[in-house]
Amino acid sequence: MSKNSEDELVVFDTNALIQIHTQERFSQLALSVYQKAGYIGVCNRVVPEMAGATGAMVRSKSLSKADRNKIQSFLLDNLENWPVLPVSKTVCRKAFDLCRKHPLKGADAVHLAAALDMQLFRELRFFTLDKTLYQAALKEKVPVVAVSEFEGGR
């Protein structure tokens, strides 16, 4: 599959979407992946998770309220255009199994399980900026957007 294909689906986790709009370590990568992807997909748990994560960032003073509103509007404005991967019973079971197999947080396992489920129907690449989730995706044979800092061991 071509990395810059017009019909490529890139499934973003919550942090990867947030970093499109911030000035953090991987923000330039996140913006570049977003701009080059043919389609963006998200797990439906991104919606409440985005609200919670950006709210926490405002409370910790790492994000302004204006930037939080911009990020949240970006998500809500684009939901109609993006494939939204549901959290079905099958996805929940896969997430449970992934947590038993890999050192994942439950929420991260849900993102990966949803991508695993979606790839049964469509080629995709999974984009996460969490090293543990990235490595679990590789072990589960989910194609990922390469993050050079996460390659190789540990």
Structural description of this entry:
- The protein is an alpha/beta fold.
- It has a single domain, classed as Rossmann fold (3-Layer(aba) Sandwich).
- It is 51% helix and 10% strand.
- It has helices spanning 14-19, 27-36, 46-59, 65-78, 89-101, 106-118, 131-139; strands at residues 9-12, 39-43, 84-85, 124-127.
- Strands 3-2-1-4 form a 4-stranded parallel β-sheet.
- It is globular and about 40 Å long.
- The two termini are 27 Å apart.
Write the layout of secondary structure elements.
Elements: E1 9-12, H1 14-19, H2 27-36, E2 39-43, H3 46-59, H4 65-78, E3 84-85, H5 89-101, H6 106-118, E4 124-127, H7 131-139
Short description:
By secondary structure, the protein is α/β, with parallel strands linked by helices. The protein is 51% helix and 10% strand. It has a single domain, classed as 5'-nuclease (Rossmann fold, 3-Layer(aba) Sandwich), CATH 3.40.50.1010.
Q: CATH superfamily, please? A: 5'-nuclease
Shape: globular
User: How many angstroms separate the termini?
Assistant: 27 Å
CATH architecture, by name, is 3-Layer(aba) Sandwich
The CATH C-level class name: Alpha Beta
Structural class: alpha/beta
CA radius of gyration: 15 Å
Give the strand content: 5-15%
- Across the major sheet, the strand order is 3-2-1-4
CATH topology: Rossmann fold
The main sheet comes to: 4 strands, parallel
What's the helix count?
Answer: 7
Contiguous runs where pLDDT drops below 50 for at least 5 residues: none
| Average pLDDT over all residues | 93
